[in-house]
Specification:
Blueprint: E1 4-9, H1 14-22, H2 27-32, E2 33-39, H3 51-56, E3 60-64, H4 70-79, E4 84-87, H5 94-99, H6 102-125, E5 130-136, H7 161-180, E6 184-189, E7 191-193, H8 202-211, E8 216-219, E9 225-230, H9 231-244, E10 250-253, E11 258-260, H10 261-271, E12 279-282, H11 297-303, H12 311-324, H13 326-335
Helix pairs in contact: 1-9, 4-6, 6-7, 8-10, 8-12, 12-13
The structure holds nicotinamide-adenine-dinucleotide (NAD) and 2'deoxy-thymidine-5'-diphospho-alpha-D-glucose.
Nicotinamide-adenine-dinucleotide (NAD) binds at residues 9-10, 12-16, 39-42, 44-45, 66-68, 88-92, 107, 111, 134, 136, 166, 189, 191-192, 198.
């Protein structure tokens, strides 16, 4: 059987590295697919998150490429034979987008356009070519406490520079479908958590700080609500959409597990046997979205996917992983440069 090659962008980041570790090397997937992973290795991308698995598996290859560099993207990827893309790479942290929006436009918007241009070239010689954009629930904006969850038909109303850049990318993806007929899919997922997440994000930050009895910075009153999904559930859904989704469609993905931030922090404190006096209420995030919730009826009905892991079980597993892998967090934080998000 001739194997197909899929390009994975952002494979050294949180969700991408879990995708590489858990989907790309699954026996059934390995039989049919090779994966070419590209990543520019920003502060958020760490080759050591996937090095062991890339070395062990012949169906995986890696190259350091920055999607913002259009000439390099064009010349390198034009010569690579691949029949699909799963585009995870992005600047992903809302707080960083508030203090410095430019790179969010450069990577999330212009980087996506560079990838779309190459994809279109590939599509011209391969009508089976498929492009999957990994997007976010944040493109829909914020919900009030009693509003129904976001469906795929909800208007795009992003509030932060991060979500605006992601919404903009989604619209360019749509335009490549409508204008040039490029076969595209878009997934929009809620808040992920699990192993290999950068300790600047809520759950790993709270775990790392609580472990060493440091203060736990809760924005505002801690009343904001997020819909949490375990990263493996998200990645299973991504693969279902990539292999079975209907071209041109958007699929919402979520954990059906809404949690108030303060409750999440308290659960982490309890599990680690620490004291709630560690909680430190700090100045709220500017434009802080109150609530996200995803209506996942469409993906359930059309593709038969649903999240498997409960929040309680997933959180326990995640805390255990961070306890056992404190060297990983140490290395990530040592590498991180908090004033400039590129190398
Ligand atoms: P992450 O920040 O952990 O990883 C992003 C990866 O992209 C890193 O490896 C980084 O090095 C790479 N990257 C950044 N700029 C690049 C560039 N110019 N060229 C090439 N590579 C570049 O992010 P994540 O949490 O893994 O998110 C992955 C994707 O999923 C993003 O598109 C994000 O918007 C989306 N998403 C994330 C969540 C979540 O809760 N984390 C939820 C829904 C959707
Ligand atoms: O909803 C999907 C999105 O989830 C993804 O698209 C983003 O890439 C991802 O970063 C995440 O965005 P959030 O802003 O929701 O995640 P974050 O972990 O930064 O914050 C979660 C909530 O916790 C949010 O309400 C802000 C709050 N928070 C966060 C941090 C880092 C705190 O109270 N204190 C903190 O120190």
């Amino acid at each position: 059987m001739i194997k197909k090659t899929i390009l994975i962008t952002g494979g050294a980041g949180f969700i991408g590295s879990n995708f590489v570790r858990n989907i790309c090397v699954r026996t059934d997937v390995k039989k049919e697919f090779d994966f070419f992973i590209i990543d520019s290795l920003t502060y958020a991308g760490n080759y050591f998150s996937i090095e062991d698995v890339v070395n062990k598996n012949k169906n995986l290859s890696f190259e350091q490429i920055d999607l913002r560099h259009s000439e390099r993207v064009m010349s390198f990827l034009k010569s690579l034979n691949f029949c699909g893309v799963i585009h995870f790479a992005a600047e992903s942290h809302v707080d960083r987008s508030i203090s410095g929006p430019d790179i969010f436009v450069e990577t999330n918007v212009l980087g996506t356009i560079n990838l779309l241009k190459v994809s279109l070239e590939k599509f011209k010689t391969n009508p089976q070519f498929l492009y999957l954009q990994i997007s976010t629930d944040e493109v829909y904006g914020s919900l009030g406490a009693n509003d129904p969850a976001f469906t795929e038909r909800h208007v795009l109303k992003p509030n932060s520079p991060y979500s605006s850049s992601k919404a903009s990318a989604d619209l360019f993806v749509r335009s490549y479908y409508k204008t040039y007929g490029l076969p595209v899919l878009i997934t929009r997922c809620s808040n992920n958590y699990g192993p290999y997440q950068h300790p600047e994000k809520l759950i790993p930050l709270m775990i790392e700080n609580a472990k060493s009895d440091k203060k736990l910075p809760v924005y505002g009153k801690g009343e904001n609500v997020r819909d949490w999904i375990y990263v493996d559930d998200h990645n299973d859904a991504v693969w279902e959409v990539f292999t079975k989704g209907k071209i041109g469609e958007v699929y919402n993905i979520g954990g059906e597990s809404e949690q108030v931030n303060l409750d999440v922090v308290k659960m982490i404190i309890k599990k680690l046997g620490k004291n709630e006096s560690l909680i430190n209420y700090v100045t709220d995030r500017l434009g802080h979205d109150l609530r996200y919730a995803m209506d996942i009826t469409k993906i359930k009905k059309e593709l038969g996917w649903r999240p498997k892991k409960t929040f309680e079980a997933g959180l326990d597993q995640t805390i255990d992983w961070y306890i056992k892998n404190s060297m990983w967090s140490k290395k990530v934080l040592e590498r991180a440069n908090y004033t400039n998000s590129t190398n």
